Automatic annotation (TrEMBL):
Domain NAD-dependent epimerase/dehydratase: 184-397
Nucleus in keyword set: no
The species this protein was found in: Bradyrhizobium huanghuaihaiense
Leader sequence segment: none
Designated name of the protein: SulA-family protein
């Protein structure tokens, strides 16, 4: 085996490690997505084949039929990779970086085969036999790679079995409070919350009109759904019973630079303004506009209990939410009931803030942020969908409504409960000073600050949460 061949193998290993940890573990989080169970099975089989190949090529030269068996393993790897490509396209949308990495892996693997197959054919032409070889550091490196590939394979199979045990509530059963057949317009319909809301409504027989900015994401929404890319596509005589406005630039996927803050604000204000213009030109006004907001409206209050009647403290989160709610207020003058849904931290394994915590916690690297005394007001995603349906169906429910579970917890309690559920320690505390130096206002408001919010309006109107405690929520989603 030539130095060029070993170099190409090393490059393949580096790209494979990047793909596994950056894409599969940290960005796509395949180990927590039930839809990717078969993909994980393919990954597990392929990793075990890689482990076998690394050991064989690192320490042995095999002749005759044994060399042909190595060729068979290489062919099997190609077949599994092609199946993996098909499965990925059917079950999820790959980010550009993963597609590029896969292309480079395929090209490099082709070059490896061009150099390796003649060697294997030459070995196959010789009498049956096995000889032990030692390539120095290369043999040691091959052993380390074999161990790593095998561990990744075990991880994939374990995750696959776990996903098989995870059960979700049928989506159509989340909106039972909505009687008749409603037509609901949803903005932000391909997001973590919007996609589940759209699936729930359409599954229950309601007509969903989904505003999507990126047509490539249309496949995320199960039919039947009417897709539009602009509100201008809706005629004035379009019958709409309710509008749920969830669209907006994500706030937790990057530091709050001036440009990022402006984009966060503009995306929400502009979209809400467009909705008000749509309502103004509709011949029949919708019954209700459920306009997204967040508990950040209250600002940072330490331990004080906050209900819908509480005042606010000035900070960027309050500025954002106040502007968002203000943009929806003109709809009231058009005769539409407006509800400002002040949403807390939404729990689910398919999106939201908790998905960034699962991998480090699963590997035993989780722990509190700063002192851990800051409050986390949370809500399980299906409960949020049920609450949105309840708000639409309750005519006397107006103004701000806190969308949080009745029992908020501190960050220390949250991390302890997550560690308990994953059977892992949660002792790696991240210093608050470090987070502030890295994240600035983002860290102060989203990570180290918090609100102790109670859903008084929802409870007083008779809404019943399925998951009042964090333990109940984790047991449902994990």
């Amino acid at each position: 085996m030539t130095p060029l061949l070993w170099t190409l193998i090393a490059i393949q290993i580096v790209m494979g490690v990047f793909d596994t940890f950056y894409h599969h573990e940290f960005t796509e989080r395949l180990a927590w997505r039930p839809s990717q169970r078969f993909e994980l099975k393919l990954h597990g089989i392929r990793n075990m084949l890689y482990a076998l190949l690394f050991l064989l090529l690192g320490w042995l030269q095999v002749y005759g039929l044994l060399a042909l068996l190595i060729v068979a393993v290489l062919v099997a790897e190609i077949v599994i990779t092609l199946m993996d490509f098909v499965e990925e396209d059917l079950s999820r949308k790959l980010p550009p970086s993963e597609r590029i990495n896969h292309t480079l892996l395929a090209i490099n693997y082709g070059a490896i085969l061009v150099l390796l197959l003649p060697v294997l054919i030459a070995w196959a032409m010789q009498p049956f036999g096995v000889s032990v070889v030692h390539h120095g550091l290369l043999s040691i490196a091959a052993t380390a790679c074999a161990v790593g590939a095998a561990l990744c394979g075990v991880r994939d199979f374990a995750a696959m079995r776990r996903l098989g045990r995870m059960r979700s509530v049928p989506a159509d059963g989340l909106v039972e409070k909505l009687s008749g057949r409603k037509t609901v317009l949803i903005t932000g319909a391909t997001g973590f919350i919007g996609s589940q809301l759209a699936a729930s409504l359409s599954g229950a027989g309601h007509h969903v009109i989904a505003l999507i900015r990126n047509p490539a994401k249309a496949e995320m929404l199960p039919p039947p759904v009417t897709l539009i890319t602009s509100l201008d596509q809706l005629a004035a005589d379009t019958p709409i019973d309710a509008i749920v406005n969830l669209a907006g630039e994500p706030i937790g996927n990057g530091l709050w630079t001036e440009a990022k803050r402006a984009k966060i604000l503009e995306s929400r204000i502009d979209m809400t303004g467009e909705i008000v213009k749509l309502i103004a030109r509709l011949a029949r006004k919708p019954e209700v506009l459920v306009s997204g907001s967040a508990i950040g409206w209250y600002g940072l209050w330490a331990d004080q209990v906050l209900t819908e009647s509480a005042k606010s403290h000035a900070c960027f989160s309050h500025e954002l939410c106040a502007a968002w709610e203000q943009a929806a207020r003109p709809a009231e003058k058009l005769g539409v009931r407006v509800v400002y849904l002040r949403i807390g931290l939404v729990l689910g394994t398919e999106g939201g803030f908790i998905t960034r915590m699962l991998t480090p916690f699963e590997f035993g690297l989780g722990g509190p942020l700063g002192t851990g005394r800051q409050w986390m007001s949370w809500i399980e995603r299906d409960d949020l969908i049920r609450l949105i349906a309840y708000v639409i169906a309750t005519p006397d429910l107006t103004g701000p409504v806190n969308a949080t579970a009745p029992i908020p917890v501190t960050n220390a309690k949250f991390t302890e409960e997550l560690g308990r559920r994953l059977h892992r320690p949660a002792v790696f505390r991240i210093p608050g000073g470090l987070l502030r130096r890295i994240g600035g206002g983002f860290a102060d408001e989203l990570l180290l600050g918090g609100q102790r919010v109670l859903p008084n309006k929802a409870l007083s109107r008779g809404f019943v949460f399925r998951h009042e405690t964090l333990r109940s929520a984790f047991e449902a989603i994990l």
